[in-house]
UniProtKB/TrEMBL annotation:
Taxonomic source organism: Heliophilum fasciatum
Keywords: Cell projection, Cilium, Flagellum
Signal peptide segment: none
One Gene Ontology cellular component: plasma membrane
GO BP, one annotated term: protein secretion
Domain of life: Bacteria
Transmembrane segments: none
Keyword Chloroplast: no
UniProt xrefs under Pfam families: Bac_export_2
Name of protein: Flagellar biosynthesis protein
Organism ancestry: Bacteria, Bacillati, Bacillota, Clostridia, Eubacteriales
Length: 119
């Protein structure tokens, strides 16, 4: 019975991995006219995309509907205009996270400098 449950768990994990999808976008306002798809995949490839994003501290936004739409694009393609509104919302959220992180880092640096002056 114990062996059967291990197999069931393994099958469940494999099924979950197979359902995993990821699409990575890059957008440089100075270099590009619109965000571009730079990576996409399902299963193991999607997990690797997410692992790299985590390692590089790239924000990840979970939006299955958007992922489905973006996964239809080829790597290197700019997103079509009809995707602009929803991708703009995602980018605004990411920029807000970045701004918040920068402000927090400044605050930590300032506190550290004050402690060093007092010491």
């Amino acid at each position: 019975m114990q062996q059967r449950s291990k197999v069931d768990v393994h099958d469940k994990l494999r099924q979950d991995l197979a359902k995993t999808e990821a699409v990575a976008l890059r957008y440089d306002q100075k270099e590009e006219g619109a965000p571009k798809v730079v990576a996409k995949g399902q299963g193991y490839v999607a997990r690797r995309i997410l692992e790299v994003a985590e390692r590089e501290e790239v924000p990840v936004v979970s939006d299955p509907a958007l992922t489905k739409m973006l996964s239809a694009l080829e790597i290197g393609m700019e997103i079509p205009e009809e995707f602009y509104p929803v991708v703009a919302e995602v980018l605004a959220f990411v920029y807000q996270l970045d701004r918040h992180a920068m402000e927090k880092n400044r605050e930590i640096l300032k506190q550290s400098e004050e402690k060093n002056r007092k010491a």
